[in-house]
Amino acid sequence: MSLPRAGVRSDFRRFAELNSELAELNSELDELEEEFSALKLSLPLQLGDLKNLDTIATNLVDAINELLTQIKEKTSYGVVSGLTVTAQDTPDMTVNVSSGIIYMQDGERFEVEADTMAVVEADADNPRIDIIYINGTGLVSYMPGVAAEQPTAPETPSSSQLLAEIAVAKNATAIETENITDKRKLLDELEEEFSALKLSLPLQLGDLKNLDTIATNLVDAINELLTQIKEKTSYGVVSGLTVTAQDTPDMTVNVSSGIIYMQNGDRFEVDTDVITIDTADTTNARKDIIYVNSTGEITYLAGTAAEVPEAPSTPTGGLILAEIAVAANTTAIETSNITDKKKSILN
How far is residue 199 from each of residues 57, 67, 205, 218, 238, measured CA to CA in Å? Predict the structure, then answer.
């Protein structure tokens, strides 16, 4: 039994032979990306040291649960702590934003300092709803709404996260606590997203007959964690999404179904598709691309015909699947014309 990617070396079959021998068990989670280096595990276990077995197992579970916390922070987004918007002790037309930590949709982590935001003067005739948010560079920001008889809050700018809405009554001269509505997205409890990975280790010193099962379960849990980390802290194709020529080549290509994680963490299950390639140029060759766009759709982009053609750049937010070499005057796309450009999440 081994954990090759984590550097864990073990032979749990030896646990069945505890009456004669319990081999040394060295286990270490290694190279879980740089951000997980502090969570390396070591588990030296000697037959004569069984009195420490409960402590060793408990420490291992604690380390894995800490890893769960790391996964949660790295695979979701929202406020980890703080960033509460509050009125002043003596209310005026400013609000306080406490310091805190936030993960953005693109995975950026910001430690935000406390700030005081001035609210725009109230309208004389109608109320207004303003917003406080963290922008894409991690700064506390403010945006006033439009005064109206039935006001609505402005849209939160792209790549930003809303913290609170501020109800500004007409002719208001101060923002009270009741005028502030908390709109933070908090990182959910670990149990909701990783309930399948919960670990419990009721280990009794006198119950060594179950040690093999316990060790196996721990290794299975660690392997599952490694898969979660790899999928959710990287991006690329998990499976499928292969671009192929037709059995009888023509000016279309097939794209198989598959699963892909985008750069911003979005996960898409993509259906099979058939893509039609533009008619070839009569003079020069061309390079086209097939890619998955930011909304999870298989998309085609033709290049520019030239004596030495270059493939077009993949649009922002997209992930390339393949390049198609379209020769001058060609009437069919062969297998040899397709170059796989997928980024596999396992690489």
Answer: 11, 12, 19, 8, 26
Residues 6+ apart with CB under 8 A from 74: 35, 103, 107, 229, 232, 233
Q: With beta carbons less than 8 A apart as the criterion, state whether 276 and 288 touch.
A: no
Which residue, among 133, 100, 134, has the nearest Cα to 114 in the 3D structure?
A: 100
Query: Does the pTM exceed 0.90?
Result: no
Between CA 291 and CA 263 the distance in angstroms is: 13
Q: Which two tokens stand for residue 205?
A: 């010193």
Give me the residue spans of the domains in the chain: 2-76+191-233, 78-182, 236-340
Are 216 and 12 in contact, with CB atoms under 8 Å apart?
A: yes
Question: CATH for 78-182?
Answer: 2.60.40.2980
The residue type at 340: D
**pLDDT tens per residue across span 47-91:** 444 445 555 556 666 666 666 555 555 556 788 889 999 999 999
CATH number of 236-340: 2.60.40
Written as six digits, the tokens of 131 are 């917003």
Dump pLDDT digits (tens) for 206-251: 444 455 555 566 666 666 666 666 555 567 888 899 999 999 999 9
Relative orientation angle of helices 211-233 and 53-75, to the nearest 10 degrees: 20
- What does the alpha-carbon distance between residue 187 and residue 76 come to, in Å, rounded to a whole number? 7
Q: Indicate if 236-340 has the same CATH topology as 78-182.
A: yes
Three-state SS string over 172-199 comes to CCCCCHHHEEECCCECCCHHHHCHHHCC
- SS3 category, 320: strand
